[in-house]
Protein 1
Amino acid sequence: MTKFSLRILVLSISLLYPIANAQIKKIGVPFITNYNPKTYKAASENWDVLQDSKGMMFFANHFGIMQFDGVRWSIVAQPENKSMVRSLAIDKNDKMYVGAQGEFGYTVQLPNGQYKYTSLIKLLPDSARNFGDVLHTVILDKEVVFFSNEELFIYKDKRIKVIGSEAKFDEFFEVGKEIYVSDNVKGLLKLENNALGEIPSSKEFIGMKIRKIFKTNEGLIILTQKKGLLVYKNNQLKPFVTEADNVLKQNQISTGILLPDGYFGIGTRQNGLIVIDSKGNLIQHINKQTGLQNDYVTNLKMDREGNLWVSLKDGISMIQISSPLSKILDASNSETKIYCSEIYQNKLYIATDNGVFWLDWNAYKDGQHENVHFQHISGMSENVWNIGVFGNSLLAFEKNGVFEIKGNSAQLLARTDGAWQGVLIPNHPDLLLVGGYNGLYLLKQINNSWVYQHKIKGFEQSSRVIVTDKDENIWIAHGYKGIFKMRFNKTFDAVSNIEFYNDKNGFPSSLFLNNFKIKNQILFGTTKGVYKQDAHSKKMIPDAIFKKYLGMESHIRLLKEDPQNNIWYISGENTGKMNQKTGAGFTIEELPFRKLRYLYIPGFENIQTTTKGDVFFGTQEGLIHYNTTKSKKYEAKYKAIISEVKCIFPKDSLLFSSRYDVLPTNMEWANTFSPVLSYSNNALHFSFASLCYDQADATKYEYWLEGFEPKWSEYTLQTEKEYTNLPENEYIFHVRAKNIYDVVSQEAIFKFEVLPPWYRTTWAYILYLILFGVLIYTIIKYQKNLAEREREQLILNQEKELLRNRAELNEQKLALEQENMAIMKENLQTTINLKNAKVASNTVNLIHLNEILLSIKDLIGQIDKNNDFNTNFGLLKKINRIIDHELQGDQHWNEFEEIFNQLHDNFMQRLKTSFPELTPRDMRLCAYLRMNFNTKEIAPLLGISVRGVEDTRYRIRKKLQLSSEANITEFILNF
């Protein structure tokens, strides 16, 4: 975790003085985890190792400071000049001091996970800045000491004191709270009061190439590159003789570390790691041949769990030297499956898928790993399922039959169709019953040799698991069918009685049944706990004792009783031991064996115990040894951490990360880091890990996003979690781990806030409130306006109704008036018609009269004045004048014109107004034309001839300005 999470400062100097209860086994090779450059994706060379107060591991790498959190590797910081990092030191506040190439300084972690590097070179005078690699960095009280071959730098209170060398320094040593420096001219010097002084006999150390110094009760133990180990006591220098002298002197010591129990871990340049005790006895030699990935050791450091971290010229290795488990292996069987093991005549035999091998167990126990190797037993190269001691013979049960092992070879005793195992028949120690692939076989001991007798008749099933009881019953477990119980006849050549038990007889299932003999009682392993046979009902029932300690939910794969009356078991994937209490009952011990999960060969689980407390486990990865006298603290506290947090939408953007140079480091930070995210960044990806390095890939995690999820998730191996479409809220992401020992870590948290989208912000809600108010006001206003409009509409409707009523009245009145008008019109029309008739009648009469007058005038004109003397010509002339006067018709015309104008809308007046050139005669002709009279009818009215009417019409046409094509009558009618 970073500074924003709760920090528990572990005031530890575990890298120098590791946990006291860690012990180092001499038997076998500890479990080793190798990390190569392809794994951590950085330079191959690593020069220093440290662990901070949280438990995070850091390495001085050519590319910078490299961090490992149990899951992920990353470069987290680089010196200012980007050079390789050679040394590291860390104080109780996790400020990390860095020694590099021509550069040194310190780095601190910021709340956003980034490491900010600060160079201290600027505090040096120019004359002191020309130096090479800073090979060592040490914190001593309130001082930090940086060592290079050219100069020694002491940093305190933001000042640096420089101590130069006359020639060159060779090496630097932190011994307890004292500092020693080997000088190529003065020998071994000691730093006191910020000055280097020679120790007694210092000149003896010139050219010795010291690589490490340890302070013990016997004096200073000096590790030299090529001269082995020396002891400096009472100002005298003496050799420290060890069992590893030849190896140490031939392979050049490179570094060393003081281990628990006064042991010394010594790294070499050419042959890996050597561990000796305080007396010089060889405890371990771990090199490339036994699992280390490289033989050049550059540094050694212990972590708080008791693991030894080995930085190498090519890679990094973690050795679990505090574990009571180790591997019995060498290059010949490192990848061999182990089906069974046996110690016989001080030799350790292992049955494998490639035959049987043996090694000198006493020599191997004494640490002579270099010269002790597994040797193959000739004569067998197939799968050997079991080996066992019967009488004075070591027998092996193989695919081709039963073999007896003598020396380095095996002799076939009985060729069968496969042999699984053998058991002695109760009360008959000279009879060996062999379970085969397809039945049972009998061997008899004759003259201390086992001789094949015959196949037993009456049973043809695979007999891989066989146990016998005190009543000479034979119990055989068939993994896919059930349990067979049988007895033989007196000659042991046939089955006399057989009983079969499966799920119909009380077992929870007929599959995966096993049988075991524990404390002279026959027990059965099932998929649901341990069962036994009820003595009265003969039914299979759960065993009460094992139900109490192992439960009824797991598959019991193996039960094994050891010489100390403890019961070993494999339940599901868990291996454990039921330790017999002094009084009664058992205690359960499982934690030391959690590393064995998923290592067994299914169906061939094997545990071998000895009277001396050695326990062997046959696995797919070789033979594993457990020493009951060794112990380890399995319930150590550790922390979960959040490695990285990033937004994944709309594009990836980091919020928290320790990876180098991926986030700003030049900002002012508060003590906490709680990012506030816009709503568009509401999809987050969390990466997490735990700072427990023992089988880190088997650590499980649970997580909980407070504010989004109601509870913790189930435990899973997943080390990442993604959330999308998070609503606006304040969140806390929690994560915690559970390691293979079921120890739950301290949880890590990450706080953040997702802001609402703009339309759900406070200002938006204020705006919504205002808009809501405006809406309410608008609605009220609208309602008022609507009411007003409705009122106005009502008034309008009432007015309309009133107007409609009035209109109806008016319509009625109008109808009445129209009716009256129609009547009046009818009367008027009648009057007009009468007048028209009168006019027509008058006109006709006038025409008739004028015709008469014209006729009279013609007759008068015919009187001959010369021949008719009796005629009164004066009277005729007077009559003629009266006729002419009547023909003029002015008096009649005026009356006619008045009536005509009334009938024809003042036609005469309108025509005269429009055409003032018209004469009265023209007007009279126009009136007659409007009455649609023809020329003949008009001539008598005007008192002229027809020709005279046509001439008058012509003149009128011209006065009316009518074209020749226009019809004068139509014009007059339409005027």
Protein 2
Amino acid sequence: MGGRAVPLGGLKPQVLLAALVLERGRVVPASRLVELLWGEEPPVSARSLIQTYVSKLRKAFADLGAPDVIVSRSQGYLVRLDDARVDAAELAVLLGKARQQSQGHGHDPAARLLAEAVALSRGPALSGLRDTLLSGEARRLDELLVSVQEERFAAELGLGRFDHLAELTAAVARQPVNERLRGQLMVTLYRLGRQADALACYREGRDALVDELGVEPGSELGAIHSAILRGTLELVPVDAAPAARTATAPAQLPATLADFTGRVRELAELAAALRGEAPAVQIVAGPGGCGKSALTVRAAHEAAASFPDGQLYAELRGTSDLPATAGEVLGRFLTALGMDPAQLPESTQERQERYRTLVAGRRVLVVLDDAASEEQVRPLLPGAACCAVLISSRDRLAGLAGALFTELDLVTPGEAYGMLARIVGEARLAEDVDSAHRIVDACGRLPLALRIAGARLASRRQLPLRVLADRLTDERRRLNELSAGDLAVRSSIALSCRALDDRARTALGRMGHLGLPDFSTWVVSWLLETSEAEAEKVLEVLVDAQLATLSGADAAGVLRYRLHDLVRLYARERAEADEPAELTASIARVLDGWIALLSRTAVNSPPAESTWRPGAGHQEPDGVTVMAERLSDDLDAWLRGEESAFAVAVERAAATGLHRHVCDFVSAHTAIEQAASSYDLRDRIIGVAMTSAQHVGDPGLAADVLAKLARLRFFQDRFAEARQLFGDALSRYRDLHDVRGQAAALAGMGLACREPGHLTEAVHFLSQAATLSHALDDRVGIGHVLRIRGSVRLELGEYDEAREDLEQSLAAYRRAGSRRGVALSLRSMGLYHRARGDYETSMGVCADAATIFAELGDDLMHSYAVRAHAKAQMRAGHSAEALPRLEAALATVRAKDDRWGQAITLRVLGQLHLAEGRLDLAQDYLDAAMSIWDAMETPLWRARTEYDLALLHRSRGDVEAADAAFAHARSVFRARGAREYAEYAELPV
């Protein structure tokens, strides 16, 4: 700068700066810089190193008075060169000007400009960086310089000059298979009277072509040789290429779709990029049928005015059996650019050189549709930076250096509806909007499917939308329905599958048959009986083929992949035709994997109650121990993320006859403590297991599943139903003499009696469960039953017995190693100490419980412990400190849709506001709690809240309402045997 060299540092900073300069004025993504500097195996600290290199380069430029050369952007960096000269760009500009001069002003001005262009070269392009990943760009610049040299020698020959002989001889020596340069050297030698040397030059060139490329000289070089032999050289048009310019610029773009809809952002970004001063190669990638071709053609039309020298278009047939060859496409391009078809070079290399020569310095847009690979595309890329290339491909073509990507996914719901409306007509869709949305959903928002559905409706004006929607809803008919004319979703997907290897094709088929909403690498490894690493490689092949998408990572850090619904249906169809016998076994392996994983997790983290464990005989896949360890940090989050997959898998397993697998999976699933889950999905899973248990014909299995359903009903606050189901399960266990089952069912009955306030009955069932648990020496069972019985005795006012039960429960849980059980018992001990007026001790044990729940990631029970702690604070006179913690607890139980927790927390908040004299707020909270108690049919808790309302009425001076509420509440206390009957003999004044 200013005549002073800028110290750039080592090789990698030089590559970085070169990459930015070559993309003059455009942002280079950081990911692209990482790829250029380190290839496929970058270090973990790659992005940090990029920042370091940029910082050092900025300092080097700042020291010379140019601090703002490298500019940061959100996605990467760009170089701001302002008026600085970039040799590569200036070379292309001079070449373009020279061609314009040669058209209207003869060879002399063109020769001067071309000599100026040649003078810019001071050696090989990107010297010192040619062994880096910029080598492809270096070759492109070299080819541009060769084009300039060819044009210059042609101009010199056109002027009758021969003083370039030494330079031309050196150029041919460097490029012995460049036929144009060799022809120019032969002409120069011949016109200098050196015919023998000219013929020797031809023989040397022929030998080089045969030895290096295995081809004979092209027609033009042969024509020069023949003319020399006949002495008729002046009849051969030596410099046909520069003069071969059509009067009309090629305009080959196909028509754009009249009903093109959506893709507003992508279209605007593509068109703007193409209109830029130095447009890069733009790649539009996406799955088959997503509208890549429609978008590229539309964007090309919108940007066409920026390319006055023409627009070239080629359908590369990348997904067909016969992809277009580079030589074939180059021949069409050269003809469109004005070359006589009879003079087209034979070899692809020659055609490529001519093509790049013709478009250098011209604003030409090249659109390449349906590209198969980088190898197919590279020969078709112009060498001139002023040309633009727009490519559509199912492959991402990541190997094209400097290319910018537009990744197409499905259209948005609004765009999908709009596309259907453009084809069918807005008014027709308005007649049955629900069916229209069902059609959009069945098409999976895939443009090709929407276009086909729209075409079927448009060609059948009398076909009701509801009929087509019903047909598409049937998964077995959907692909058949999505066919119209030469458009078919099935054939589009088949084209993407054609290039898959056997392993990837098998994976796709088994994934489609299993039909999960998304797949972890664990599941796919089980489907294929391979390692997780190998499964990930196969899945990446499917991603590259646009048949699967990476949907993220789950709570265990395991990558997850998704199939589009229509791809899933096609894959299932093919799998059932290609390997029907293996499909059931692959599903069994998936359930075996989950069963082993959940069972291992249950062993690592003992639950807080007795559970039903799966039967033996399931094969444990390799790596399950490590997988279980990865789940230890956030098991609940992993379970929540996997529940939809669980539900689909058990339904598919039941449909294929794997009924014992279904029942054993449900046993393993319910053996895991879950802080929160979708009751609907658990209901769906257990419902399948109920049917499967009947198919198995095992009475014990049927009793287990019935007990699991009862447990679910309890969690759903359907206490009467839970009690009935636990009773039915208990009868079956007694018939089977299953003592462990009886203990679990009796404990469940005790719980189902406690919540609605049947306290005496609860103690009756829990005492029986305690006896059986002691006989089994089931520490977890003992801890669970005694904790529940202790809490019921606390409700009854039997304080000594309650404390004894709770202390024994805590000891049993500690012996069993159940941290969750310990936390539950500590919280119950906190309730005991609060009831006895020992608020400090209550707050201490509740805080300990909250800490454990937090460490376990159990947000729901953490909120229960926080609420118990806050109520003790409130009783101790620290209401101001308790209020925000109670409000946070309420937010948690609402987020978890826990009605019981909401009602209790609302009641405590009402009590707090009542104690603080905020009567209106108190009434709001207490009334809200009353509504939930009524909905849940829990009369004891309703009576306790009614007692609080009696106190509120008394505070307002409404004695009549207070006495009525108090009398009703006290009658319930008496009927239920609750301790409040003795404690609240009369309403405080």
